Amino acid sequence: MVWLMDKKQIKHVLKKRDRLLTSTKTLGISVLVDEENGSVADVGHAPFIRVEGCFYIYSSHLSSHIRALLNGSEARFFLIEDEEKSPNIWARIRLKFSADVRELARDNGRFSSLCDQIGQVHGPVMEMIRNFADFHLFEIQPKHGTLVTGFAQAFSVKGPAFELTEHLRKS
Fold first, then answer.
1. What's the whole-number mean pLDDT along residues 138-166?
2. What per-residue confidence (pLDDT) applies to 171?
3. Cross-strand partners of 77
4. Which residues pair with 46 in a beta bridge?
5. Residues 111, 69: Cα–Cα separation, whole Å
6. I need a labelling partner for 153 at 20 to 30 A (CA). Which of 63, 94, 97, 100 fits?
7. b vs e for 53-88, b when ≥16 Cβ sit within 10 Å of the residue's Cβ?
8. Quick one: pLDDT band at residue 3, thresholds 50, 70, 90?
9. What is the SS3 string spanning 89-153?
C-alpha cells in the first residue's frame, strides 16, 4: 500500500501530481471508434480547464474521438509532462484515467461561464469558436487511474482529486 512509504516520499509524489495537473494545458483522449472493419483505437487531445476536480473541454465533432464521446464510447484520458521540462525522457510524469463524461448543452446554466473560463486560460480563439455549431462542451469527472512519477513510482489513484490508493509494485 502507498502508506508504507514515509511521509516525505508521499509528499514528493503529491507535489509531482499537483505540478502535472497545474502545468499541462491539453488533455489526451483515447477511444475506440467503430469503423467498417471493426473497432480501432483513436487518440486526440483538447485544451482543458479544471474546475472542482472536473476537466472541461470544448472540441469539434469533426474529430472522430469527439464523435465517439458524443456516442457514449468509453474513453481513457491522459496528461503527460512536457518533454522539454522533464529531466528524464524515459520517466516523464504521466497520469491516465477513466472518467464519467457528459456533454453540457448550450442552454446549461454553466455553459457560458465555463466557456469564459476556457477563453481566459487558452486565449482569444475561444471567442471565435464559441458559437460554432460543431463544437461541444464536455465535463469529464475522473473515476480512477494510474499516476507515474518516475521509475518504480507508479500509483493507483481514484476520484477527481486523484487520491493515491496504492503503490504499484508488480507488473
1. 95
2. 62
3. 29, 97
4. 27
5. 18
6. 100
7. ebbbbbbebebbbbbbbeeebebbbbbbbeeeeeee
8. low
9. HHHCCEEEEEEEEEEECCCCCCHHHHHHHHHHHHCCHHHHHCCCCCEEEEEEEEEEEEEEEECCE
CB burial of residue 15 (10 Å; 0-12, 13-18, 19+): exposed
Q: C-alpha cell of 25?
A: 494545458
Amino acid identity of residue 99, one-letter, is A
The rounded distance, in Å, linking the Cα atoms of 147 and 16 is 10
Query: What tens digit of pLDDT does each residue of 29-42 get?
Result: 999 887 777 788 89
98: how many CB neighbours lie within 10 A of its CB? 14
According to DSSP H, which parts of the chain are helical?
Answer: 7-23, 64-70, 111-122, 125-129
Instruction: Examine the pLDDT at 62 and tell me if it is beyond 90.
Output: yes
- Cα torsion 29, 61, 143, 117: sign: positive
User: Does position 9 have pLDDT exceeding 70, yes or no?
Assistant: yes
Q: Contact, 69 vs 101, CB < 8 A?
A: yes
